[in-house]
């Protein structure tokens, strides 16, 4: 295997993870839309997040909230993996 081949494998792995991350973010938006469309109605009209943020239970707001939460989670996980791989002394 030459260095060009290993670079291609690394780039294709990153593209795959980015595509998977994008799909999961879109899925979070779709699920947020479903929750917002079917949200409590008379039972509750807004969602309080840790007492810091209040999100109305509308399809648009829940779509945005779902996408933001999933994006923050994915970026956190990808950053942790990047840092761990940077400091791995046994990496090939």
Please describe what this structure looks like.
The chain is mainly alpha-helical and 92 residues long. It has one domain (3-86). Helix content is 68%, strand content 9%. The chain contains two helices and two strands, in the order αββα. It has helices at 3-37, 59-86, and strands at 46-49, 53-56. A two-stranded antiparallel sheet has the order 1-2. A hairpin with a 3-residue loop joins β1 and β2. α1 (3-37) runs antiparallel to α2. The longest helix is centred in the N-terminal third of the chain and has 35 residues, at 3-37. The mean pLDDT is 82.
What share of the residues does DSSP label as strand, in percent? 5-15%
**What is the total number of structural domains?**
1
Class by SSE composition: mainly alpha
Compute the CA-based radius of gyration. Answer: 19 Å
| SSE ordering | HEEH
With helices defined by DSSP (H or I, 4 residues minimum), what is the helix count? 2
The strands making up the biggest β-sheet line up spatially as 1-2
- The mean pLDDT is 82
Q: In total, how many beta strands?
A: 2
Low-confidence stretches: none
Give the overall silhouette.
elongated
Can you give the helix content as a percent range? 55-70%
Terminal-residue CA separation: 13 Å
Largest sheet: 2 strands, antiparallel
- Counting copies of identical and different chains, the oligomeric state is single chain
